[in-house]
Structures are given as C-alpha cells and as structure tokens.
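Before going further, learn to read the protein records used in this course. A complete example follows; check for yourself that the lines match position by position.
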Amino acid sequence: MKKFVLAAVGIVCMAALSACSGQKAEVAGYIENVKINGILIPAKLDTGADVCSVDAEVIKSYKDGKKTYVEFNLITDKGEKINITAQRVRVAQIKLRTGGYQERPVVKLNVTIGSISKDVEVNLADREGFEYRVLLGRNFLEHGVLVDSSQKYLYTK
C-alpha cells in the first residue's frame, strides 16, 4: 500500500510540474511499442538510463566536409536490418557492467510515443543479448513521459 501511495504522489507531482510548464504528460508502461524514425519497435523505458540506446550494426563512419556520418543497420525485434545514415553527434564512453568502457557512436533519431515525438541522442550498440532492442532513457522521457512500472503497452499493441 505504501508503494502505491508513493507512486500515486509521484505521478500527481509530475503531472502538476508538466501542467505548470505547459507540457502535456503521457503515462506509458515500462514496455511500449515506439517509433524510431517511423519504424515501430518494442522498447524498454528505463528511468535509470541517461541516454537512449538502439541495437545497431555499424557499417561505416565517414566524413563529408567537417561533419561525420554513420551508416548503420537498425535491428528490429524480428531481426530485420533497416539501413539508416545519420550525422554523428559525438562518441560516448559507456561504462560496462563487466568493467572498463566501450566507445559508441551517438546520432540523433526521431523517437515517438503517443503524442510525444522528439529528435534525441541515441547511442548505437550491440543489444543482441538483451530482451529489447531499444532502450529509452531520460533524455527522451524528460519530454513528458511518466513511466508506470506496473504496466506494458499502454499505447500501441
């Protein structure tokens, strides 16, 4: 009961903050079908992750003038490979559970849940060993997504 009351208070507070900022809040389950550059794919919404991450197979990086681009295959939950080219924003140093760090290219992709659609930074990673090929972090969730950890698929089924 105590957990329910705390969760309810948290949702009310977040809704109030969203109302004050003029931003509409969306309540989503911890697992949702989301659109990444228009491609529908299941994702885990993770309030503990700073940045979004997608399962991608990097094909190549190349420079065009002063800009660096990354060509990669976005891997869907069905194992499909969808080719995308995007400008590299930066290279992230990701701390690994096993120790050490891994460098990952970061690009901006369009992410959509319900009425919230934003271009956000996404790191490209090998997520083959994970249950979900997409992880949505706080850099997307902060745009008005409240995560109900007791629910799944509140939007698209």
About this structure: The first helix runs from residue 2 to 21. The first strand starts at residue 26 and ends at 36. The CA atoms of residues 28 and 147 lie 5 Å apart.
